[in-house]
Amino acid sequence: MADDTVRGVASIDPRTGATVEVVAQETTTAEVDRLCTAALAAAPALEERGRAGRAALLRALADALEGRRDDVVAVADRETALGATRLNGELTRTRFQLRLFAEVLEEGGYLEAALDPAGDTPMGPRPDLRRMLVPIGPVAVFGASNFPLAFSVPGGDTASALAAGCPVVVKAHGSHPATSQLVFEVLEQAARKAGAPEGTLGLVHGVQGGADLMAHPAIRAVGFTGSVGGGRALLQIIESRPDPIPFFGELSSLNPVVVTPQAAAERAADIATGLVGSFTLGAGQFCTKPGLAFVPSGADGDALVDAMATAVGRLPAQVLLNEGIAAAYARISGELARQRAVRPVARGADPAGAGFEAVPLLLTTDAADLPDAVTEECFGPVAVVARYDGEAGLSAALERMPSSLTATVLRGDGETALPLAVSQQLRGRAGRLVYDAYPTGVAVSWAQHHGGPWPSTNSQHTSVGTTAVRRFLRPVAWQNAPQEVLPEELTDGFTGIPRRVDGVLRPAGA
Amino acid sequence: MADDTVRGVASIDPRTGATVEVVAQETTTAEVDRLCTAALAAAPALEERGRAGRAALLRALADALEGRRDDVVAVADRETALGATRLNGELTRTRFQLRLFAEVLEEGGYLEAALDPAGDTPMGPRPDLRRMLVPIGPVAVFGASNFPLAFSVPGGDTASALAAGCPVVVKAHGSHPATSQLVFEVLEQAARKAGAPEGTLGLVHGVQGGADLMAHPAIRAVGFTGSVGGGRALLQIIESRPDPIPFFGELSSLNPVVVTPQAAAERAADIATGLVGSFTLGAGQFCTKPGLAFVPSGADGDALVDAMATAVGRLPAQVLLNEGIAAAYARISGELARQRAVRPVARGADPAGAGFEAVPLLLTTDAADLPDAVTEECFGPVAVVARYDGEAGLSAALERMPSSLTATVLRGDGETALPLAVSQQLRGRAGRLVYDAYPTGVAVSWAQHHGGPWPSTNSQHTSVGTTAVRRFLRPVAWQNAPQEVLPEELTDGFTGIPRRVDGVLRPAGA
């Protein structure tokens, strides 16, 4: 930083707009260097703890977080206005996530261990080859504004990176620095108590600190949750490194929903309740918020839209996470409402207080004449309903969809033909296909995928679920290696994990 | 292309430098668009052929290549001067590779199929979730200069992309356009005969065609084998796309070799023969060429270097692949030899003909005073021997190593301590650790890995071996999906492939 003034990091109450406290100082370039250097130094010891040692560490972090539940939820609610119920759920999810990665470690299949014995093949003699995944090295994690726990300091990126065996330096999101600082201190103390090497966890505050982190030579991969603009800026820093590193960004998602004519006929009222609940959950600040719903024209669709309008009209103003999001919401939702062919059909109550409040908004348009603006994400409690005529009209409109984290089909009882056609059309543009449910719940599990083609992410990896760990690993092959230099999991006779031997997958114990 | 002059693509004989024929015209922007659009249109039908259908297609391609072996080897030898023995071996390897990917398809584990049944979890109710990998879409493959078959039109990128279910458009390398054109025609005819959809394969000639290919919206991923400069240029095109896509580039590799004092004492002559054979194989034009060897100081190391010098002194001049590589070799090897502290110890015979010939060269330097230039790849028949004093001297020098595809340890009989220390130090800088062998052979198998941290590749994926297929796949999750919309491999009761069910890995048939 050319300007070496040290700046305070303020914690702001979004319900009032007032600064409550100065949490920390912005992290200096020298301090970022110290944290990254410590992370690099910690990497071998963290790996040497092995799968069992890191599983114990993850469980210790989960327990420590649970032990400070009330304090963490209180400060997170004060900084985000997300409410205690949601934040308690988020803490439970975060604890569960840490513990699930401990199971992933113990199971060991994530290592993709493979052994090819030496021998003759149709292409000639083959040496003894053994392959598995190893930690990629220190990881930079950029916390998200909208999940102060599950996608921030103790979130999925941190849990999966530590599981992989990678030290983590987190860039705290400016929306919740006090929560970040508190949780970091809880985790760091627990890690130290559990015997993790110094440097296993680090925390950075401030924009310049984040840029310094991205550029630091010790950092080997990046997990990011945020905007396309923020992601592009970080990619530019990566491209100017002498050694570009893998970037896992979750950037933006429209999350289209299709209501079939049969579904609209059978359960318009239920769907209206579900959709409004989903797009206003957490004040519409979910990356999986359904931003655009396709509803058939005609009486059934009219009934559905009327029911949505009634529900939206009864909603109070909602407090957004920070001033920037509130200003962007006012601007973008206003632009949306002014689009040619877009009609506002309902709005919630006007703001009552001085905080970062937003008015819930329901808009409609014609699927046959979709303005470009409605195909872009707008963070906050707004959704657009596009009315379509027949399958051909729907299909033509779906061709305009950008890639998203999710695509949802709400279908009639037993209906399969149209859901299949929609699935086939949208599979190339989504990471998760949801049926008869709403996209805003993202379970943490073995079969989950939270990703998708650009701009949702860059296609190939997930930030939720057990396979998130793959982002922070890289393969290594050992050729003709003596047993003494091999990782335990690749040695002769080891049966503690699934391994592929000469092409044949063998479960653990076999 | 602003300049719409159509240019011919010349096939040049590197043994004479003469243009033998004009093979084709450079592909126009309009033609690239036609090929990419056809690839996009072919994608669903190629996927619908299923695993068995694509396995049959890969075997048909392998058979067709074998059927034209003599013609292919003849034209490839004329264009590359690699010799019939090597090129016959490369064709065998390429055929084997296509057939191995057919086995990968039949085995099905590559799909990473996972099913989580609905139920209650500690974080709350979980919906039914099912995940597997699907084709990413049309792939652009940039052929390599140095492997006209195994890393070009019919090579590993093409085989793994087709296996994944992705149509492929290949950018032919300018060094062997006639080979590329012939092999493309053989493959395309075989694909058509096997019932593959039109657009499954495409071929592009010329630099502008390659740039147009990278920028085309239908292309969803890129496989590239070439220089750091070329890779950086392609990355810039990707970053300027509205939708950046995954780039899998194999860019540059030094491939350090460590000879332990015990190995030098036990078998200096053998190692000298092996090392010289490895760094001059294919005229030193392997991405796995050992460019820098660490040899102990003292009498055993002296004997090893003397034996290497004798072997190099007996070598004839070697024909390089093209004029650009020959010019770069002359320049870079000349600069290397002029480095402070670098001493030329042997050179092969001077060129006799008018072709793109190069003089084999052996240089030595001190490990304690390694010039930067010797830590960079120099394509062609040159290697540097760095003499080291003791383990501390070796370790300090290894800290200077860039990341490589391989790192090799030549050890004494039963020796483990120093090999382990070197492995631990170099594992973070290499994709494959080789013991008591030379890095230039790369077997195609289940446990192979050909990649590494930048600049060798970008860390996480391989271009050789069965897991190369992962580059051209992306995950999708289905939530609460009716059986009718699921891929067969995720339906209830399917046991044809390994699947992870509620976290437990089940082999096929279970």
User: What's the number of extended β-strand segments of chain A?
Assistant: 23
The percentage of residues in β strands of chain A lies in 15-25%
Radius of gyration of chain A: 24 Å
- Most extensive interface: A-B, 95 and 94 residues
Q: How many helix segments of chain A? A: 13
Oligomer: homodimer
Helix content bin of chain A: 25-40%
* N- and C-termini, Cα separation of chain A: 57 Å
Main sheet summary of chain A? 7 strands, mixed
Q: Which runs of chain A of at least 5 residues are low in confidence (pLDDT < 50)?
A: none
Instruction: Provide the spatial order of strands within the biggest beta sheet of chain A.
Output: 15-17-18-13-12-19-20
Taken from the alpha-carbon principal axes, the silhouette of chain A is globular
Alpha-beta classification of chain A: alpha/beta
pLDDT averaged residue by residue of chain A: 96
In a nutshell, what does this entry contain?
By secondary structure, chain A is of the alpha/beta class.
Notes on the structure:
2 copies of one chain form a homodimer. With 510 residues, the first copy, chain A, is an alpha/beta fold. Chain A has 13 helices and 23 strands. In chain A, the strands form 6 sheets. A 7-stranded mixed sheet of chain A has the order 15-17-18-13-12-19-20, with helices on both faces. In chain A, strands 21-6-3-22-23 form a 5-stranded mixed sheet, with no helix packed on it. The first copy, chain A, has a 5-stranded parallel sheet with strand order 9-8-7-10-11, sandwiched between helices. In chain A, β4 and β5 form a beta hairpin. In chain A, α1 crosses α7 (207-215) and α4 (84-107) packs parallel to α5. The longest helix of chain A has 24 residues, at 84-107. Chain A is globular. The N and C termini of chain A lie far apart (57 Å). In chain A, 59% of the residues are buried. The model of chain A has no long low-confidence stretch (mean pLDDT 96). Chains A and B meet through α4, β3, β6, α8 and α13 of A and α4, β3, β6, α8 and α13 of B.
